[in-house]
Write a structure and sequence with these properties.
The chain is α/β, with parallel strands linked by helices and 268 residues long. The chain has helices at 10-26, 43-55, 68-76, 90-97, 130-133, 148-159, 163-166, 176-184, 195-198, 234-243, 246-254; strands spanning 33-39, 60-66, 83-85, 107-112, 114-118, 139-142, 170-173, 190-194, 199-200, 203-204, 208-211, 220-226.
Length: 268
Amino acid sequence: MAQVHVLKPLKYLRASAAFAVLLTLSTTIPAETVSIAVAANFAAPMARIIEAFEAGSEHQVQLSLGSSGKLYAQISHGAPFEVFFSADQLVPSKLAQAGLAVTATQFTYAVGQLVLWSAAEDFVDDKGQVLRLASFDKLAIANPRLAPYGAAAVEVLEALDRFEEVKARLIMGENVAQTYHFVSTGNADLGFVAASQVMRDGKLTAGSGWLVPQSLYTPIYQDAILLKTGADNPAARALIDFVKTPEARRIMAAYAYVQQVDLTRSVD
């Protein structure tokens, strides 16, 4: 007996194709967006890290910048950030203790360096003697109550026995980004800023500066932590893991961040 072939109606074929497309779409993992809060000193390297992260995944990142202290206040009052990159270790620990972050995910992503910098060529010598000569009108620092880089600047001035002599000339930025703005626009003759703001690949990008010896201030260990709001967001965990990769570490090193061994630990 000859085999009979039954031709399917065109409408049935179209319906089958449409069902197959719907099935494929339903099994595709959707891209997610992660909202992150980042200390102002880390703005430039984080921009490049985000670019690399988004290029290698379908996830997207929403970035907010500020001083660590102000970002802590915002998170404490319900700001919907999912990952926090602080300029210190204390603030992430406080968030964990308050039940706002996943304790086991805290890690040191970099160690910051402090630079005494002026936008003017040959104004700051490579030993920081300009602080002793006091041949300046205004010295900018970040608010030491809100910004770890500001606290480090005060430590340096006290270690050099210069704080009392220069305190009347201090102008304070809300964070180290505003401090940099004061100096770059000439509103301050010089200031203590993050090395990442004025150095690339070990060299100053403009002006003159003194890379402050780390023996003069407490190391600026910068910690990140997964916030409870991002605990179930795969994009949040993926970003944290990406920050620990060699690619991200190369970006940080180019911006004068010292590396920390804890970078390789995966998020639990």
